[in-house]
Automatic annotation (TrEMBL):
Transmembrane segments: none annotated. Coiled coil: none annotated. It comes from the Bacteria. InterPro entries: UPF0145_dom_sf, UPF0145_YbjQ-like. Pfam families: YbjQ_1. It comes from Lachnobacterium bovis DSM 14045. This is UPF0145 protein SAMN02910414_01890. Gene3D superfamilies: Hypothetical protein apc22750. Chain B. The lineage of its organism: Bacteria, Bacillati, Bacillota, Clostridia, Lachnospirales. Belongs to the UPF0145 family.
């Protein structure tokens, strides 16, 4: 499966199938949340949250690809990601794009 954030793939003629998306809501455990809260006092990267968001993006992307494959797509173009806080320490990540077939 080819995944790009452009509306074209060089050398390919595309037939649009439709919108596909994948999402997940992730949170870290209370112990990690506490230690990351302490980190905000001194500054620096919140590595546990960086890891959480990377895992969430990977899972959302995988779910988007699964949806595209179920539609018989060869690729997904115009891929975008969005995230939003659901509650303190939890975030939703969504991946979405346009499923296409090669003509």
């Amino acid at each position: 499966m080819i995944i790009v954030n452009t509306d074209y793939i060089s050398g390919k003629e595309l037939q649009m199938i439709g919108l596909v998306k994948g999402s997940t809501i992730q949170s870290k455990n209370i112990g990690r949340d506490f230690t990351q809260g302490l980190k905000t006092i001194v500054g620096g990267e919140l590595k546990a949250y960086t890891s959480m968001m990377n895992e969430a993006r990977d899972l959302a992307t995988s779910r988007m690809v699964d949806e595209a494959m179920a539609l018989g797509a060869d690729a997904i173009v115009n891929v975008r990601y969005s995230s939003s806080a659901i509650m303190q320490g939890a975030a939703e990540v969504m991946a979405y794009g346009t499923a296409v077939k090669f003509v």
